[in-house]
Amino acid sequence: MNNLLKTLNKASSHLTILNKKYPTSGKTNVTPNIINHVGLNLHNNKNSPIYTIRELIENSFDSASYRKFDKYNTFEPVVTVKKNFDDLGFPADHVGRSKSDTYYVNNTHLLRTHTSAHEVECFEALSNCNDHQDPTKSSLVNGHGYLISADVYRRDEIDKTHYPVFHQMEGTKTWTRMNPETQKVMLEEIETMDGLMKKNFPSLTVEDKDYVRDDDKHENSKQEYMTKEETSLVVKHMKKSLELAVATLLKHRYDHDALKDKSFKNPEIKMRWIEAYFPWTKPSFELEIYYNNEWLEVLGCGVTRNSVFKNAGMESENQIGWAFGIGLDRLAMLLYNIKDIRLLWSKDKRFTSQFEGRTGEIFEFKPFSTYAITTRDVSFYKTKEMNPNDVMEIVRDEANTWCYSCELIDEFHNKKVDKTSNTYRISYQNLERNITNEEINAINDKVVDRLVAEFEIEPRL
Ligand code: DAH
Fold it and tell me: How far, in Å, CA of 282 to CA of 132, rounded?
C-alpha cells in the first residue's frame, strides 16, 4: 500500500479524482485504494464479463421498443449529495447517507452509491431533446427512455460477493398522458414482449401477486396523480421489459450449454416479484430469480415518482413512467459461475485470457487453482463507538485485494471492566500467488496499529 500517498491525502487540503481537485473536509473518507479504482470502468472494457452483461441487457430493451433507449456509459463517479440523495427524496436521516455506508469526497460531493444519481439529469436531457413526436409539446416526452451504466461505490462488508466498487445499470421509460397514442403504443410493446417471451422462454414461470394498492395512503400504493389503470399499465410494461431482459441473459447461458452438450435441457426458469420501497418510485418492486436452487434478488424498480419529473423541470403532471436499477457484477458472477468477486478486477492471465475476444458470449468460467486462505483473529476492547464498516475499511485499505473476507465473529460485554470486546476474523488470500506468514503478519499488524490510532481500541492478546 502506498503509505506516503495516504499520509499526503490525510494531511493535504485537497484530493484529486479524474484530474479534478476537490477540497477535503471532516467528512472526507475516500481512501487512495478506492480512488485507484476510479476510471477502470469494467462496464466499458470489452474483455470484461460486465461489458457483455450490459450489452445484452441494452439489446433486450431495444428489441421490443419502438424507440431505442438513449445510452449513457461514461458519467463520472463524483456527484453531489443533492444528486445522489436529495433530488431522489431520501429522508435526511436515511442510513445510506451515513459516513459508515458512503464514500464522501467532502461535505457536498461523494462517490455515487447508485446510478439513480443520474436520473434527474437524464430526464432533463430527455425533455430537452427536440426530436419528440409532437414538436408543439416539446416538454412532453412520449415513449422515450434511457439506460445508464456506471461504477458505483459503497462502504460495505468484505466477503466473496461484496466489493466496494461495483457496477449498476439504471433505466427508465416515460410517456405523456395527454397523447392519445400512448396507451396504444404501450399495449403494442407489451404484446411484442409477450410474444418474445412465449417464443424464447416457454418454460418461464413468473410468480406475481400484483401488489398495486388501491389505498393512496399506503406507502406502496399508486400515486395520487395517476389513475389505477395507468399505474397497472406502467407496472405491466415495466415488469415485462425486466423479465425479458433477465430471461435473455439466462437464455444466452443456456444456449451456450446446449451447444456444448447435446443432451442439455434448459432448466426451468422461475422468477417472482416482491414488494419493495424506494424513495423515488411508488409503487416499488424487486425481482428475484430462482437459480441453482435458491432465490436471488436481481433488481429494484418502480413507477417513477412525480417529484422526480418535477425536479427535472418536466411537466410532471403529464408524465408517467417506470425506472429500475440492476447490479451487473453479481449477475456476471452468477451467469459465468465466477465464485469470488475480486476476480472481476484481476489482471491474472488465467482470468483475463478466458474472456478476451469473447464479447457477447456467456459461458462457464473455468476456475484455476487458488492459494491458501490464512485467518487472523483480532480481539480488542472498544473505547468509543465504532461501526463494523470502519474496521472493514481499514482492512480493505491495508490488505486491498489480499483480503478474502472480514467478519465480526464475537461481541460481549465484560462486566468486571465494563468494556465491550469485539473479535474480527480476517481471512487473507492472494489470488495470484501464495503469501507468507510474515507478509500476513505485517499487514495484520498495520490493521491493529491503525485501529489503535484511529479508534483507540485496546488490543486483547
Ligand atoms: N438504486 C437502487 C439501488 O441501488 C436500485 C433501484 C431501485 C433503482 C429502484 C431504481 C429503482 O431506479 O426504481 O439499490
Answer: 26
Q: What is the mean pLDDT of residues 263-273?
A: 88
> For residue 133, what pLDDT is reported?
52
Task: Name the residue of 324, 326, 328, 329 to mutate for ligand 1: max ligand atoms within 8 A of Cβ.
Answer: 324
Asked whether the whole model's pTM tops 0.85, one would answer yes
Backbone angles phi, psi at 275, to 5 degrees: -75, 150
Task: For strands 419-428 and 374-381, give the pairing.
Answer: antiparallel
Q: Which of 133, 240, 131, 229 is nearest to 189 (CA)?
A: 240
Distance CA 286, CA 273 (A): 6
Burial 264-293 (b: 16+ CB within 10 A, else e): eebeebebebeebebbbbbbbbbbbbbbee
Is residue 87 exposed (0-12), middle (13-18) or buried (19+ Cβ within 10 Å)? buried
Instruction: Please return the burial class of 64, using the count of CB atoms within 10 Å of its CB with bins 0-12, 13-18 and 19+.
Output: buried
Ligand 1 pocket mutation pick from 119, 174, 301 by most atoms within 8 angstroms of CB: 301
- Cell 478486477 sits at which residue? 345
Question: Residue 82 above 60 pLDDT?
Answer: yes
CA dist 411 and 403 (Å) reads 22
Nearest-CA neighbor of 100 among 158, 155, 28, 169? 155
Give the binding-site residues of ligand 1, using a 6 Å CB cut-off.
114, 116, 170, 278, 281, 300-302, 323-325
Residue 47: Cβ within 10 Å count: 15
Residues 175-217 pLDDT 10s:
998 777 888 989 999 999 999 999 988 889 999 987 666 666 7
> Phi-psi region for residue 292, left (φ > 0), alpha (ψ -120 to 50) or beta?
left
Residue 209 pLDDT:
84
Q: What residues pair up with 376 in beta bridges, in sequence order? A: 426
The mean per-residue pLDDT over the stretch 445-461 comes to 95
For the chain, what is the mean pLDDT? Answer: 92
Using only C-alpha atoms, the chain has a radius of gyration, in whole angstroms, of 24
- In angstroms, the CA 162 to CA 153 distance is 11
Calculate how far, in angstroms, residue 284's C-alpha sits from the geometric centre of ligand 1: 9
